[in-house]
Structure formats: structure tokens, C-alpha cells
Amino acid sequence: MDNRNLYRLDDEPRPGTLARLAVEPLWPLLGLMLGGAWLGLPWFVLNGVAVGSPTRVREAVLAAIGLLGSLGLAFGLLYLWQAGILDKDSLQYAMLVLVVWKLAIGYALFVMQAATIELYQYYGGVLNRFGLPVVLLGAFFLRALVLNLLPFTLWFLVLS
């Protein structure tokens, strides 16, 4: 009889084959801050799947809400600017809403994953140490490439 399936905690992580890709949730948060939403949000989702987070579906939904919310806010800001309601100086201040939105989503994902990662480590899980190189590579080398992939302001605003 397999003893592993007899007793499980509901909030205990269930790592799979991607467990070797799991990192501290600090790294996806820094990736979001320095590289942009294109780096941080998918990384949070991958991290949740890698450790088998019991909240991985909620994390993926929150990441999708983060992208859709960024899209909606960017559309709204561009509309207000093109309609002449916001001038260039006001637009720069209004864009802080977009930054705060992304940081709030990133912090919420960080908090959701922190408990799971700690349980994962407590039960013997080992986290990878490639977080810093990925953040540095994404923030300083790949960011410009990804954000300039399409020549649309909306693309830049949503994914930055």
C-alpha cells in the first residue's frame, strides 16, 4: 500500500516534474518590478505549478486579472489622453495607477506563494538558485527586446 496517498494536508504543496524550476517568490516579484509584467506574472504562474501550490489556480487567475486590468487601465489612459482630457504632464502622473496596479498584483501573488514555498521547503523541497540571473537577464537584456517587439504603445504599457 502506498503511504504517500493516505494522509495529505490540504495546503501542502504537491510538487511535480517542474519542481526543479521552483524559486523563492521574491525573484518573480523582482522580475515584475525590474523587467515588467511579461517576466513577473508568467514566472509566478510557473512557480506555483512547479511547487504544486494548492492555490495555483487562484494564482493563475490573479495573474490573468493583472494582465487584463493592465490592459483596461492602459486603454483608459490612452483614451483620456487622445480625447484631450489628460495632457502629457497629467498622463505621466495618471500612469502611476498602472504601476501601482501591477505592483499590487505582484505583491498579492508573492504573499500567496510565500506560505506554500515555506511549506515546500519545510517538507524537504529544494529551491533553485537561478532567480537572480533570470531577473538580471530579463531586466537588463531582454526587456527592451520584448517591449519593442510590437510598435504599439498599448503593448508597451501592458507588458512593462
From TrEMBL:
Transmembrane portions of the chain: 21-41, 61-81, 93-115, 135-159
Domain of life: Bacteria
Keywords: Membrane, Transmembrane, Transmembrane helix
Name the UniProt record assigns to this protein: Uncharacterized protein
Species assigned in the record: Pseudomonas tohonis
